[in-house]
Amino acid sequence: MTDPSTSSGTADRSETADRSGTADRSETADRSGTVSSGATAAPVVVAIDGPAGSGKSSVAKQAARELGYGYLDTGAAYRALAWHALAHGADTSDATAVLDVSGDFDYAISLDPDDYWVRVGTTDVTAAIREPRVTDAVSGVARVPPVRQSINALFRSLVAASARPGVIVEGRDITTVVAPDAPVRILLTASPDVRAARRSAEITTQDAASVADALHRRDASDSQVVDFLTAAPGVTVVDSTELDFGQTVAAVLGVVGEALRQTQTQGDAR
To answer: 44-269: which CATH architecture?
Structure first.
């Protein structure tokens, strides 16, 4: 896989950060996904985890819009790598094959919630990475430890270089691995039936039973890599089972506001 310092925005270390996340890599990211660089304030990180169908992507994107933050869809990186592996005819269930094909994985993603795109090399794969064949292959690439380590470092670099006041980062292990020290950490969840119904409404090319089966299989496979259904200590749970989209966004914004107020109060007390 291409080194994080030169990929996911394919930026040179001397470049100035732009709003898409292509940015200067001269700073060192810490485990919260933020960095300090002289007078430049580190971005606030809002870490959101959750299972498929919980609404985390759409909710995180809307919350980012309302806060004026960047939005980082971490699942897109694994999907893009799965797409890349399939394009090279690699067996995504074979860790060695995945590592081999990740060597020339040139990945870039926009952090702008109003101009979202994903690219591998010069190919726009924003839509292609949502295809069922890619979804079926994602777990295979995501369970390879060296791949996760490299991609996690990539996420931290993107956040640090975002040139935004904050970034909402959503995925499966953001609150525990990518940014465990983030000032705001949320587990967004919903009941399995509600999640299946939501995902079915999004995917119109498959019947509801097929979508539900795929979602349950993805949960079972991904749970072998990371526990994304149980909130770690200090993580706030937002259960959207009984909430509509607007109410869920409001709930997340409420958690963000309260957490940042507490952080500010603690800072003032020091």
So the answer is: 3-Layer(aba) Sandwich (3.40)
